[in-house]
């Protein structure tokens, strides 16, 4: 076999791996809006929601939280400061739904450099029930939200969670973020879970409170800079698994700028690099750039025709990805394929940026991530 053939085969192998992940995820996932698994018991549940400031869809996400069909649940809204502008919106939503138990908890417990985890501590401690959901404020909860989470619990579960499903983009860069979240990140997360490599995602996490309390409580999640990474490692140490809901929950995006998408993806990438370096390193092989470069090298070194080779790679990557989105009812528009291409063009630069330490902004908190996990520290916040 000559070099050109070897390079073409290597390109094909990457495309085939991409297709395999789509097939595995597609088999594992149910379409958006599908009924949750049937369950016999419906225990009381506490939902802890850390909030900070008003977001694009705050009124709607708050309203959804009060309209769940679960028979007995409480909502614990955690805010660091009583003057936060989100507080009046929470109070209005609670007044409109007096039948739902809801409390606003104010305070800032500094147990870690993770502002979200610090905000959740008081909610965890105040939770009245054994089953606790840690839910981000921008999750658009369906009415059967709790049933989906409880239905994902198995005999070997230590945690059930959901990756965010991007929706309602306003503008091209929000379309790009949809393609990062959905057919890239969610797809690989579900494919990994199907292969026994499940890892936590902090958007929605269902815990059995007595189990976590017996192993350090919520404070144990400060072992890593990201609480979902700490959750994954804790569950693994206990010999249990992280499982995902049958279909991910929606996160409406609204408008996004290119800088916002770049900053957010770089932050997540750097967090993955310091918490799971062995899994992060091969991410450079994902996306269209590696197989395209390999195929272009094959064209230069052999007699492979350029245009058919490039089109074959692109079709092998993007047609199955679009088919997955269509089959599962995820965001798909005329901008989706161009957004996929922009995402893939960004991915190598994001991967390289992840290896460089520096400051990041995490919901208004300036933090420093070093070149190794032991160098994580909180930096002074700006004015």
Automatic annotation (TrEMBL):
InterPro entries: Ceramide_glucosylTrfase (IPR025993), Nucleotide-diphossugar_trans (IPR029044). The chain crosses the membrane at residues 6-25, 274-300, 306-327. It is found in: Membrane. GO terms for biological process: glucosylceramide biosynthetic process. GO terms for molecular function: ceramide glucosyltransferase activity. One of its GO terms (cellular component) is membrane. It is a multi-pass membrane protein. Keywords: Glycosyltransferase, Membrane, Transferase, Transmembrane, Transmembrane helix. The keyword Transferase applies. This is Ceramide glucosyltransferase. The lineage of its organism: Bacteria, Pseudomonadati, Pseudomonadota, Alphaproteobacteria, Hyphomicrobiales.
């Amino acid at each position: 076999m000559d070099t050109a053939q070897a390079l073409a085969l290597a390109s094909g192998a990457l495309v085939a791996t991409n297709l395999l992940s789509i097939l595995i995820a597609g088999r594992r996932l149910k379409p958006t809006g599908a009924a949750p698994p049937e369950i016999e018991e419906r225990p009381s549940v506490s939902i802890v929601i850390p909030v900070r400031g008003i977001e694009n869809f705050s009124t709607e996400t708050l309203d959804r939280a009060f309209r769940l069909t679960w028979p007995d649940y409480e909502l614990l809204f955690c805010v660091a400061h009583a003057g936060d502008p989100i507080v009046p919106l929470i109070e209005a939503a609670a007044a409109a739904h007096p039948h739902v138990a809801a409390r606003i908890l104010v305070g800032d417990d500094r147990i870690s450099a993770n502002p979200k985890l610090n905000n959740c501590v008081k909610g965890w401690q105040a939770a009245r029930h054994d089953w606790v959901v840690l839910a981000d404020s921008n999750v658009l909860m369906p009415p059967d939200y709790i049933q989906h989470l409880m239905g994902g619990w198995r005999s070997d579960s230590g945690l059930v969670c959901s990756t965010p499903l991007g929706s309602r983009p306003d503008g091209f860069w929000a379309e790009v973020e949809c393609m990062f979240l959905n057919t890239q990140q969610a797809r690989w997360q579900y494919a990994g879970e199907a292969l026994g490599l499940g890892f936590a995602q902090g958007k929605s996490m269902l815990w059995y409170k007595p189990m976590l309390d017996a192993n350090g409580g919520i404070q144990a999640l400060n072992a890593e800079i990201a609480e979902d990474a700490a959750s994954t490692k804790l569950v693994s140490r206990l010999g249990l698994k992280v499982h995902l809901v049958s279909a991910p929950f929606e996160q409406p995006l609204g408008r996004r700028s290119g800088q916002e998408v770049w900053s957010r993806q770089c932050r997540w990438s750097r967090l993955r690099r310091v918490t799971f370096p062995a899994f992060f390193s091969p991410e450079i092989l994902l996306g269209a750039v590696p197989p395209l470069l390999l195929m272009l090298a094959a064209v230069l070194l052999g007699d492979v025709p350029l245009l058919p080779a490039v089109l074959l790679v692109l079709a092998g990557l993007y047609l199955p990805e679009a088919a997955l989105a269509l089959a599962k009812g995820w965001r798909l528009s005329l901008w989706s394929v161009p957004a996929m291409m922009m995402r893939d063009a960004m991915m190598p630069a994001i991967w390289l940026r992840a290896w460089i330490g520096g400051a990041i902004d995490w919901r208004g908190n300036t933090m420093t991530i070093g070149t190794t996990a032991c160098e994580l520290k909180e930096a002074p916040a700006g004015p």
